[in-house]
Design a protein that fits this description.
Number of strands: 7
Shape: elongated
Strand content: 25-35%
Distance between the termini: 146 Å
CATH topology of the domain at 79-203: Nuclear Transport Factor 2, Chain: A
Order of helices and strands: HEEHEHHEEEE
């Protein structure tokens, strides 16, 4: 083999070796880039944020923890709740029922019809009809009633009774011509369809 042929062989082998090494280096770099891209969040996307779980323990003050206390239960007195409902209905009923004039065509009773049982509504309709069939008196007479004290004398199942003490002011002609007196009233209530209604209101 001539010297020239040897030189060409050596140079060609060197070039081939260099190309092979360069190819290996490029392949390794591409592999590393793909691995890095797989481990990172793609562009334009937000990585999910890790939220801290709520603490279920409390610090005892001595370096240790204990379970967080549960909220204390609130006791509801059913009897007190019923009495509150009864008085919220009965007391305004009494004051409106007992406040009227001979000039208002029994509006005080008409206003209370929605709070009455069917039996008392029938009584109210009859009373209103009779009063409106008569001519209005020429001399004004009116009464104003205020509840000053009351007692829930019965509250059992669907039946209840309230006794109230009232102060009543009766005026004739003018407000200056008036008298004040006390009078008790007994109100009976019944529960119909889950609603308390007045069955009777009797002055004592």
């Amino acid at each position: 083999m001539t010297l020239r042929a040897r030189i060409i062989l050596i140079v060609g082998g060197s070039i081939l070796g260099i190309a092979l090494i360069f190819g290996i280096v490029v392949l390794v770099q591409n592999s590393q880039k793909k691995g890095q891209q797989a481990a990172t969040t793609p562009t334009g996307e937000t990585a999910p944020t890790e939220n801290a779980a709520p603490s279920l323990t409390t610090d005892t003050g001595n370096g240790s923890t204990a379970p967080a206390p549960a909220p204390a239960p609130v006791a509801v007195n059913v009897e007190d709740s019923t009495k509150t409902t009864l008085t919220a209905i009965a007391l305004p009923f009494i004051e409106r029922y007992g406040s009227y004039s001979n000039q208002n065509n029994m509006e005080n009773i008409a206003d209370l019809v929605p709070f009455m049982t069917k039996e008392m509504q029938d009584w109210a309709a009859k009373t209103i009809k009779e009063a409106q069939s008569k001519p209005l008196p020429t001399i004004y007479q009116g009464t104003t009633t205020k509840v000053v004290a009351y007692t829930v004398t019965k509250a059992s199942g669907a039946n209840a009774e309230i006794t109230a003490k009232t102060q009543r002011i009766e005026s004739t002609g003018t407000a200056a011509n008036s008298k004040t007196y006390n009078q008790d009233i007994i109100v009976t209530l019944v529960k119909e369809g889950g609603v308390w209604l007045v069955q009777a209101a009797v002055w004592q």
